[in-house]
Amino acid sequence: METNWLNALREDKRPDSSNLIDHILKIHRDNPGFTEGYSAQCIDASGKNTYQWLADVIAPSFQSDILDLACGSGPLLSHCYEKFGNGLSLIGVDMSSAELTLAKERLPDSTLLVHGKAQNLAFIRNRDIDVVLCHWALTLMDPVAPVLKEVSRILRPGGTFAAIVDGDKSSSKEYEEVSELIYSWVNKNHKNYGKYDLGDKRVRRKETLIPLLGQFFKQDRITVNEKLFSVFGEPDKLAEDVSKFFYASYVLPEKMRFSLVDDLQKYFQKNKQVLKQEFRMPINRIVVKA
Q: Minimal CA–CA distance to 289: which of 135, 164, 127, 152?
């Protein structure tokens, strides 16, 4: 794969936001729906996946206008429709036409799907949305400040903004070890990969995320819920599933990716008795009341 992000790293330059957009768009163009493929089977102790946990913030008795930022292939909006029915007005925004094509195939015709970026929601009036959701995409948005500014503009008083973001890596030893293994493979083929985060690094740590949100919302209305979510399976299944979650694995040539998956399978086989066919990921849900 060739992207402007990878080219900048190869030249030992810091990639900019346009490089990031090019990189993400090409990965989603070639692998539409990959986020859903992993997230739908990643569950907490109660059996809920990350989409269901995020949608729990909706109060359908008085919240009906729902916006999904970076809606992807539409799994979150689909869950909202199945859970709450026709009572909701659903809007999805995504910059990937490949993902929106999948979303359109599964969602009711009444859903408004917009090809655009979260930094510009000019098609929505001030204080016109009850709930803004963002599933595992806020970490990839750069610049992120305009996104939060737009969210604060369009939310109605008493509205809710909620997002799924990365949790603290130290909460899961296997997550730390698997991340290191994957990045070790990618660095064999792409110099400096991992030197810079995809997106704004402040979103990835609770200590910096809350002050960032506080620039646009009152801090006493911000909560961060932390949980471990798991996928289950034999070592070969875990290796394949986990590899498909990380953006980094998609930049590898096919032969190297096969070798990476083989190493992951060996890792899960070696730790089978400890992990008990389970791979745990730390995940945070931020909830902001307007």
A: 152
